[in-house]
Specification:
alpha+beta; 8-stranded mixed β-sheet; 33% strand; single chain; 5-stranded antiparallel β-sheet; Immunoglobulin-like
C-alpha cells in the first residue's frame, strides 16, 4: 500500500500539534497544580478556574470531600504562602464559612468545629498568579493592521481564541479567561493631514523644526528654526504649541472614545497615544478591545469601527474654534 506524501505530511503535522498541545497543557497544569498541592493532605480536586488575562491573577476553586469527618473535627492546617490568599470558603459548596481561616505560626488554620456536622463537601477559593508566558500559549490573538474602508468609517477585524480548549476540558470542569485584550492601532495621521489647513500645517512644521533642532543640539539649526518662527509671527494667528494642544486633546481618550465603537464579542477598553512619537501628530492611536473566553465560547470575533469622517469634521471644527478665539482676542487688543 502506497501512502500519499501529502497525507504523510498532514499526519505528521497533526501528531506534532497534538504533542505541542499536550506539552502546553502540562505546563499550565503544573502552574495551577501548585495551588492544589497546598492542600495535598486533604486530596482536593480543582473544579473551576477564573483567570484575568491582564494581570494573570487567578481564582481557583478547590473541592475537598469530607467523607471521613473524624479528620475534620481537629484543626485543618496548611502552610501560609505570600503568593496566594484564601478568599472564600463554603461548606456544602454553597454555605459561606465566615472568618474561617486564621494565620498563626506561618500557617493558615481552620477550626474543624466551624464546619457543619452535616457537611460532606468543602469548597475553598484561592487567589494566585499564573505565569503570563504559559498563559499566552493558550491564547491566539489576530487582528487586521490595515483597515477596511467602510464608507465614512474604517473597520478593523479582530479575533481571540483558546487554542487548547479540548485539552483543558479534560482537566477542569470550568475555565474562564477574563479581559482578553486585542490592541488595534487605529490610523489617524491621514485624518489630520487632510483636515488641517495649509497655513496651520506651515505653523506646525516651523514648530517641529525648532523642536528637532533643540533635540539635536545644533545651534545653527536652532537659529534658523527660531528665525523662521519669528517671521511667521508677522502673519500667523496662532502659535505652534496652541495647535499641538488641540491635537493632544483630540487624541486623548476622553475625546477619541466618541469616535470608536465595536461590533461582535468585544467592548472598548483603554485608549493610548504614543508618548514617544517624534511629531505632534501620531500615526495611530492604540485602542484596546476586551472579551471573555470559556469552554462554551472559546472563540471571539468582532470589529472596531473608527468614525473617520466624523473625526475629520471634529478636527476642522476644533481648529476653526482655535482660530476664531485668537482672532477675537487680537481684535480686542487693537481696540
Amino acid at each position: 500500500m502506497t501512502v500519499d506524501p501529502i497525507t504523510m505530511v498532514a499526519a505528521g503535522k497533526i501528531a506534532s500539534d497534538a504533542v505541542s498541545s499536550a506539552k502546553t497543557a502540562a505546563e499550565l497544569g503544573e502552574s495551577i497544580d501548585r495551588y492544589r498541592l497546598i492542600f495535598k493532605k486533604y486530596k482536593p480536586d480543582i473544579t473551576n478556574i477564573r483567570i484575568n488575562y491582564q494581570d494573570c491573577e487567578a481564582l481557583i476553586d478547590l473541592h475537598i470531600s469530607l467523607k471521613d469527618k473524624n479528620d475534620w473535627r481537629a484543626k485543618i492546617e496548611i502552610p501560609y504562602g505570600p503568593d496566594f490568599t484564601i478568599v472564600n470558603t463554603y461548606a456544602g459548596l454553597y454555605k459561606p464559612v465566615r472568618n474561617a481561616w486564621k494565620i498563626s505560626n506561618g500557617k493558615y488554620i481552620l477550626n474543624g468545629k466551624d464546619i457543619p456536622k452535616d457537611c460532606d463537601d468543602l469548597l475553598v477559593s484561592l487567589k494566585g498568579k499564573i505565569d503570563k508566558n504559559i498563559l499566552d500559549k493558550f491564547i491566539e490573538i489576530t487582528r487586521s493592521t490595515d483597515p477596511f474602508d467602510n464608507g465614512e468609517e474604517d473597520r478593523y477585524w479582530m479575533c481571540s481564541k483558546i487554542t487548547n480548549a479540548t485539552v483543558l476540558e479534560k482537566l477542569y470542569d470550568g475555565f474562564i479567561l477574563e479581559n482578553v485584550n486585542v490592541d488595534v492601532h487605529v490610523i489617524v495621521r491621514s485624518s489630520f493631514t487632510t483636515s488641517i489647513s495649509p497655513d496651520l500645517k506651515i505653523i506646525m512644521s516651523a514648530g517641529s523644526q525648532l523642536i528637532n533642532a533643540e533635540k539635536s543640539g545644533d545651534r545653527n539649526q536652532q537659529k534658523i528654526a527660531k528665525y523662521r518662527l519669528k517671521k511667521l509671527k508677522d502673519w500667523a494667528p496662532v502659535e505652534p504649541h496652541e495647535i499641538y494642544k488641540v491635537v493632544a486633546d483630540l487624541i486623548a481618550r476622553r475625546n477619541f472614545k466618541d469616535y470608536v465603537y465595536t461590533k461582535g464579542s468585544y467592548s472598548i477598553g483603554q485608549i493610548y497615544q504614543d508618548e514617544d512619537r517624534v511629531t505632534p501628530i501620531p500615526d495611530t492611536v492604540e485602542v484596546d478591545a476586551f472579551t471573555d473566553l470559556n469552554f462554551e465560547n472559546d472563540f471571539a470575533e468582532g470589529h472596531i469601527f473608527f468614525k473617520r469622517e466624523d473625526y475629520k469634521k471634529e478636527i476642522r471644527d476644533e481648529m476653526d474654534k482655535l482660530l476664531d478665539k485668537k482672532i477675537k482676542k487680537s481684535k480686542k487688543r487693537r481696540k
